[in-house]
């Protein structure tokens, strides 16, 4: 280009399954847009960035209203979700800020055991990869 040597166009590295690896921010921007437009969570889950200036989309604040007909019926829960640079290959770190009595939540730290919630598979075994809304 411009009379000099041109580099070949960069292509995304293929995934282990032979597909194309989608950059983490594409996943997160898609999820953020769904929450902002109200098309995620059936009105029972809301989420957004903790810091609107966070260009890496790392830290999220979430709210959940407990499902009807359960022990959590109409209770309001606040959570933080941290998507590391390994997301979506590695699940985010989900921490309940509101105390909750649930077998998959560490009662001392409030941290959710993501792989316990998503049984029978593990996060890595699920296809397509679940997002923040799935947790």
Write a structural description.
It contains 2 helices and 4 strands. The protein is of the alpha+beta class. The chain has a 4-stranded antiparallel beta sheet.
Keywords, please?
single chain, 135 residues, alpha+beta, four-stranded antiparallel beta sheet, 4 strands
Write the layout of secondary structure elements.
Blueprint: H1 24-37, E1 45-49, E2 59-65, E3 76-82, E4 93-96, H2 114-117
Antiparallel strand pairs: 1-2, 2-3, 3-4
> Total strand count, please?
4
What Rg do the Cα atoms give? 18 Å
The average pLDDT value, as a whole number, equals: 78
- Assign the structural class, choosing from mainly alpha, mainly beta, alpha/beta, alpha+beta, or little secondary structure: alpha+beta
Largest sheet: 4 strands, antiparallel
Q: How would you describe the shape?
A: globular
Helix content: 10-25%
Query: How big a fraction of the residues is strand?
Result: 15-25%
Widest sheet: strand ordering: 1-2-3-4
Question: How would you concisely characterize the structure shown here?
Answer:
With 135 residues, the chain is α+β, with helices and mostly antiparallel strands.
């Amino acid at each position: 280009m411009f009379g000099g040597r041109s580099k070949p166009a960069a292509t995304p590295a293929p995934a282990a399954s032979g597909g194309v690896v989608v950059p983490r921010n594409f996943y997160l921007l898609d999820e953020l847009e769904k929450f902002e437009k109200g098309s995620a969570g059936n009105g029972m889950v809301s989420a957004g960035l903790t810091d609107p200036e966070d260009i890496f989309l790392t830290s999220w604040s979430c709210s959940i209203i407990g499902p009807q007909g359960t022990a959590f019926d109409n209770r309001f829960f606040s959570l933080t979700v941290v998507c590391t640079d390994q997301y979506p290959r590695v699940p985010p770190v989900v921490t309940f800020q509101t105390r909750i009595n649930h077998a998959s939540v560490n009662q001392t730290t409030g941290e959710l055991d993501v792989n316990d919630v998503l049984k029978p598979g593990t996060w890595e075994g699920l296809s397509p990869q679940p997002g923040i809304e799935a947790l």
